[in-house]
Amino acid sequence: xxxxxxxxxxxxxxxxxxxxxxxxxxxxxxxxxxxxxxxxxxxxxxxxxxxxxxxxxxxxxxxxxxxxxxxxxxxxxxxxxxxxxxxxxxxxxxxxxxxxxxxxxxxxxxxxxxxxxxxxxxxxxxxxxxxxxxxxxxxxxxxxxxxxxxxxxxxxxxxxxxxxxxxxxxxxxxxxxxxxxxxxxxxxxxxxxxxxxxxxxxxxxxxxxxxxxxxxxxxxxxxxxxxxxxxxxxxxxxxxxxxxxxxxxxxxxxxxxxxxxxxxxxxxxxxxxxxxxxxxxxxxxxxxxxxxxxxxxxxxxxxxxxxxxxxxxxxxxxxxxxxxxxxxxxxxxxxxxxxxxxxxxxxxxxxxxxxxxxxxxxxxxxxxxxxxxxxxxxxxxxxxxxxxxxxxxxxxxxxxxxxxxxxxxxxxxxxxxxxxxxxxxxxxxxxxxxxxxxxxxxxxxxxxxxxxxxxxxxxxxxx
Length: 463
Hints:
It is globular and about 65 Å long. The chain has 22 helices and no strands. Residues 1-5, 127-132 and 445-463 have low confidence and may be disordered. It is an all-alpha fold. It has a single domain, classed as Orthogonal Bundle (Proton glutamate symport protein).
């Protein structure tokens, strides 16, 4: 007679306390995205009208991003109390950003030359007369800031304006100064102020937890709007360009996986499983900003120091747009090929050099990809490629959002791991356990927002 072995009591308790499958944010987002695609496809006009659902959700998240970044950076730096350490992290992050984004540009140029996504279009330049007007409407007649202007804009005209305008780099700049000033008062800074900032952080994460319950609604509205406005049919017209961009993104993610493994010992596949909720939300809403608070929390829980996470992630949102740069370099060749123009090696190098500058000022600028491409086409100076040709991408640009968002988000996460390991601020044992799904001791000072699904929340006592 066979004997049965009862499972350990701890395992029985864990299974009993496991929430129902339908409460999983991943499942809810998946259902919402599929439903949004169906609604946008079957009832396009109704799908377009659902855009306010997505806009409202994104605005709710954005209103808390600046204060969360401020609290995270201030607490992290105040506990480190080392100006040199903060400076090293910043310099190392910028070096990494420049190296990887430049590689992304060159990688995109190689893919564009091999796949030739614009071949077969045979566009007559004379038919692009209204292209400039269409691009101007898309970008609200804006322009990308020049390099000097971009750097000066990091310094806020006032602290209040930085928060009011949700200027992340300006908030980060002030937070670094504030954290260093607190650290000057001692190892932990003035206890009353630090405790106040810590309580604020908990309050903001509590609000984020409430807002995240609306994430499926926001994803549903965003997907219904995108499909309703642009239609499934637009996929066919730009099939080769879309295939080239997504194939390049997949290959680039493999490269990111190699970088993560070699320089930080991170298994990127396990990390993807760990952040699957955030990745789905970013893809569904076509925005990486909506997941910024949760990504920072999960990176810290996975072993990255709070200081490194607080400095690298917000900075990367402006300086490390790997997906956007990859897309832009492919699109430059797409435009040339669609017009039957064979760009020389020198002209392609010029395009890369221009994109190295223009891609750094894209964050937060409406229609930034069109502005960057317009500036690049003008800099190449090839008479057969009018700036108005950028309008050819109006029908495909929004479809590329998922590609750009996924690579941008993963690129910044990998950057955080690499810089943390480089600076000796990565707890590799904790990272291994968290990514393997093992139980880990929770970090002190649990953030209320993380009571939902993150195994161990941010600690205010770690560097």
